[in-house]
Amino acid sequence: MVISTQSTPLIPWLVVCTDAEEVAARAAALFVAESVQAIADHGRFRVVLSGGSTPQRAFELLASAPWRSKIHWNDVEVFWGDERYVSADDRNSNYRMARQAFLEHVPLPAANIHPVPTGIRPAEAAAAAYEKEIREVFSASAGIPCFDLIFLGLGTNGHTASLFPASPLLRETTRLVASDFVRELDSWRITMTAPLLNRGRTIAFLVTGKDKAGTLHDVIRGPYVPELLPAQLIRPDEAELLWIVDTAAASLMVRG
Predict the structure, then answer these.
(1) Angle between helical axes of 94-101 and 53-63 (0-180°, round to 10)
(2) Is residue 97 scored above 80 in pLDDT?
(3) Is the pLDDT of residue 256 over 50?
């Protein structure tokens, strides 16, 4: 089910799926379609991955035989929208999840995988190093790089990537990647900031579960209060903005 029929910063495409499995399948199909289009257009497909159980299932599908053969992996480059400031082998690492679910099972060249360098100390230096790497990959010294596809999630508190309510990073306009200590989680995070996350040909939120219903409704249809609902900062001027959600998450949207 598609509720909205246009995609603007205020009225995104809202695609309602039966369940989390269909959300993952839609995400995998989007990955394939965008990769084909990007490689045809400019020879590379650069995608930003997110953490979470729904993306994990999409990654598992992409690593399976029916999907894997549809992608020209030599021309794919992967990045992460945010990362916990932990080692690459830590069970909480977004990179580790993607590696185990996905990257180890596809013929993607190691040079095309761009994890956040969490081995660099302190976190601020790691964030700066990641921004530098992104700029170098895109050969963009001053402008903002444009990804072909950006996957994002939505927390019950309205956060996306590692942009949390009341964070000073919500007002960031210069840095493309930054670090932040999230007090409610008692941990450091490294995240792409809104100026970079708003750049892309396609931006897709993947949201599942009844516990997200109220937040989803408020982010899309509620008043604009990004200090409380950071996901509202994702308002691209040019990218296609998609919300791929299950019926449980969309329950309040369907009712209006």
Answers:
(1) 30
(2) yes
(3) no
